[in-house]
Amino acid sequence: MSDNGNAAEEISTKGLKKRPISFWKVLLPVAIGLAVIVLMFLYDARKENLKVVWDSIHFTPWSVFCIFLAVLCMCGRDFGLIWRFRELTNNSLSWKQAWEVDMLCEFTNCITPSAVGGSSLGPVFLNSEGIEFGKATTLMLTTLFMDELFFLLSCPVVVLLTPSDQIFQATGAAFSHGIKYTFWVIYALITAWTFILFTGIIWKPMWIQKVLNGIASWRWLRKWSESIRGLGMNMIATSEELKTKSFWFWLRVFIGTALAWTARYFVVNALFLGFLPGTDRYQWDILARQFVIWVVLMVSPTPGGSGLSEWLFSNYYGDLVSTAGIALIMAILWRLITYYLYMLIGCIVVPAWLRDTYAKYRARMERNSGQPSTTSD
Predict the structure, then answer these.
(1) Which of 180, 212, 304, 350 registers the highest number of CB atoms within 10 A of its CB?
(2) CA neighbours within 13 Å on the CB side: how many for 130?
(3) How far is 269 from 66, CA to CA, in rounded Å?
(4) pLDDT tens digits along 244-261
(5) 319 Cβ contact partners less than 8 Å away, ≥ 6 residues apart
(6) Three-state SS for 1?
């Protein structure tokens, strides 16, 4: 490992040691989500009897099967990302290690604003599994680029194949226009960001490095100047490695990306099949709207899109659901499967990961200093 890699790894591990994932970071998104759900319940209670709505939802063998199918879709999502991690590391990660990195990244997604995402700590997670820190940063930049590329290519296809009044139609004209304009604005930002990533890690990394070095010299960004310059260096290292990759490598990584996102979208299709069988003919529209929802959620200021996700789902699918109450209950099921389940898994995985990571860090420091290990971990 290079000196720069050792330094970056040491700084990252120390940072985690000083500021471990605190309880309030887990509690905050849960509290926001629950608060919005309660407020929506109270609002809908004025218009209809929610007890009657809840009683109208029957958990039949078919609906239970569809819930299982929704969970299976999330398993497909995880398989796509785990496979992608293994491909990116030339299978140096075992399936178990790749699963752990995936769960750690998803947990980070849950407790950070969507605009930050789980990739921010991805290099640390990969490094804890034996991937050199500089290479881990390269891999996470690559995953970020592939995610953005998927949205860049898939969204226009979905919009072209779906009539505008079906993909952007919702419970009200103001909401429909708002989500339509928001979607295209964010899509434009995705396009610009994808071009920057392509330029920085594949085409002309030196251009981006010069721009970043110039930005790092700004006085009011002095605090982050080292990180900004480090990003430019990582882009150059990423470019040198990625230029040696074959077409089949890129195809496998993109297929893993597409599988992960598409499987996540099918969760809502499965829920509609289980609880609203009359919407069978709208399955494509339901899928198409998931593309819009996740693009909008990319800039959510709340951790894991808490609150905004539930509100957006209930309103966006309101025209396909008979009552607001049913829409809200389906939104809760959707979030339980795609969000709170990962919060629960993360609460189990993260403590063990932190303990193991700190033990490895202390052991390495003791080896470097020539002192015998006194830890019992």
Answers:
(1) 304
(2) 7
(3) 9
(4) 888 999 999 999 999 999
(5) 169, 170, 171
(6) coil
Closest CA to 19 of 121, 98, 116: 121
Residue 14 predicted with pLDDT over 50: no
* Lowest pLDDT segment from 71-80, 100-109, 170-179, 288-297: 170-179
CA distance 202 to 183: 27
Comparing CA positions, the residue from 153, 121, 122, 116 lying closest to residue 255 is: 153
| Predicted local distance difference test score (pLDDT) of residue 117 | 64
Identify which has the larger pLDDT, 183 or 21.
Answer: 183
User: Cβ(9)–Cβ(1) under 8 Å?
Assistant: yes
Residue type, 66: C
Structure tokens at 7: 């330094």
Strand partners, 303: 113
Q: Is the distance from CB of 28 to CB of 303 less than 8 angstroms?
A: yes
Residues found in the chain? 377
Which tokens go with 372?
């015998």
- C-alpha span between 71 and 262 (Å, rounded): 14
Q: Give me the DSSP letters along 311-373.
A: HHHHHHTGGGSS-HHHHHHHHHHHHIIIIIHHHHHHHHHHHHHHHHHHHHHHHHHHHHHTPPP
- As given in the structure block, the two tokens for residue 261 are 């996102």
Q: Is the dihedral of CA 200, 204, 209, 215 positive or negative?
A: negative
The pLDDT, as a whole number, for residue 375 is 46
Contact 339, 68 (CB under 8 A): no
Task: With CA atoms as reference, report the closest residue to 77 among 337, 283, 313.
Answer: 337
Listed in sequence order, the residues at least 6 apart from 312 whose beta carbon sits closer than 8 Å to its beta carbon are: 179, 293, 296, 297
Task: Please name which of 301, 365, 293, 349 lies closest in space to residue 104, comparing C-alpha atoms.
Answer: 349
What single-letter amino acid sits at 36?
A: V
pLDDT at residue number 15: 46
- Dmax over Cα atoms in the chain, in whole Å? 71
